[in-house]
Amino acid sequence: MKDSEKHQHDTPLEDRVPFWRKMGYGTGMMSYVLMVRGVNQFANPVFNDSLGVDPRLVSWVMGGSRLWDAMTDPIMGSLTDNTRSKWGRRRPWIALGAMLSGITFSSIWLFPSGLSEMGYFTWFLVTSLIFFLAFTVYSVPYIALGMELSPDYNERTAVMSYRTVISQVGAFGVSGIYWFISLDRFDSMAEGMRYAGIMAGILICAAGMVTAFFAREHESALSRLKGEKIKKVSFFRSFKETVREGPFQILIGITVLMLIGLMLVGHLGYYVTVYHIFAGEKSEMVGVLMAVGGIVSQVCCMIAVPILAKISRSIGKTGTLGIAMILSIVGSALKWVCFTPENPWLSIIPGIVMSGGLAATWTLINAMIPDIVDLDELHTGERREGMYSAVHGWVFKLGVSLALVVSGYVLTWSGFDAALGAGQDQQAVFYMRLYFCIIPVIAISIAFLLLLVYPLKESRVREIQAELEKRKEAAES
After folding, report:
1. How would you label 154-186 residue by residue, b for 16+ Cβ within 10 Å and e otherwise?
2. Count H helices, E strands: the chain?
3. Alpha carbon of 3 to those of 9, 224, 313, 330, 457: distances in Å?
């Protein structure tokens, strides 16, 4: 089948996911975004720039806690795959995880005042480890549930598009936190984050509960649970079968490269804004600029994702993913000229260009994993959405852990010293800007080259699904 012929397929009525169910599932991503971005984006401004903790210590906590999170993912994936309940395999865990995550996220920012550097470090370490265990309980079944809402190739992309667009509400919240904790009424960002953390924790719990109550699996996924039609599979064999799939290995490589490119320098946006654009002045204007920039990026993302999802129906997921990666590369390169003291508002432009590209990248990658689950079922006769979700999350978090640990050193290598305040060496500011631009460009470019050899185009996926349907009919006859 030629690529131009792929658009001829129409999603069967029974495989279409109702609007309200897509909304219910997507709402849970608000919690996911608040949790991940909340820790990643505010750890350095609060614990390093406000409380004086060495950035290397902050990066070790962030990297170590994500490594801990990654280690628990495959265990959670196997557990949720083997769960049997009248509410399905995923939703009971999502409800539990949402409650625990909301409480533990708030606790990270409720540190006692007047601690030493090691005291703040210890508080951040312990609360982060507990929080990311709760996050695993929530995130693994949540991602797996998205793979079970529809068996259709294009409908899977539609589900992930809803998820990405709705997730921007959580991203709006993160951007709003920048403004909130920068208000003059607070003595420091650390004080403001106490209140913001509590409000975010409540929203995390509420949004996760919406998914648990209103996002039900497709009937085909539920029917396999009846009468013990699915045998429980051992953890080690399930893990082995998952990681051996070639297309999955390529997708993992793309994921890791994207993460390294973005996470290594993500925190530098704050430092470049404060110490290059505003010459070290931590005014309320810093929070306003970062909040507005984040909100504008999220709006652009919400506009771009449905457009790219529609393009995907014409040229397939891989072609659209390539376009998204190119947008991300261009946006990263623009940081060099747009982050400028002469016109601070130009710093919003790279985020506009990158937002749609990055959002589409994660949307399409997550929509491609269920296609690999189909291939795995063709090879093994088993379905393990939970394990694929967990292993992809495991690798994702290992990449995040590595990037976060190294990110603290990237800041140190630039020559930045929090004790100098506005008197930073200009060479340090130059290297912060350079790393901020060039590292993502290199990493995403390599990921783009990997995409060129990815084998599961739409025509191949439909062949796999047709063969699975024949097997099902033969088994029932």
Report:
1. bbbbbbbbbbbbbbbbbbbbbbbbbbbbbeeeb
2. 15, 0
3. 12, 33, 10, 27, 8
pTM of the predicted model as reported, rounded to 2 decimal places: 0.65
Nearest to 38 by CA among 120, 135, 114, 143: 135
| Cα–Cα dist 131/352, whole Å | 31
Residue 455 domain boundaries: 17-476
Is 29 contained in some domain?
yes
CATH of the domain at 464: 1.20.1250.20
Report pLDDT digits (tens) over 217-236: 776 666 665 544 455 566 67
Q: What is the pLDDT of residues 325-360, one digit of tens each?
A: 898 899 999 999 999 989 989 999 998 888 777 777
C-alpha to C-alpha distances, 205 to 38, 137, 433, nearest whole angstrom: 14, 13, 37
Taking CA atoms, 359 is separated from 162, 228, 309, 407, 409, in Å, by 11, 38, 11, 22, 27
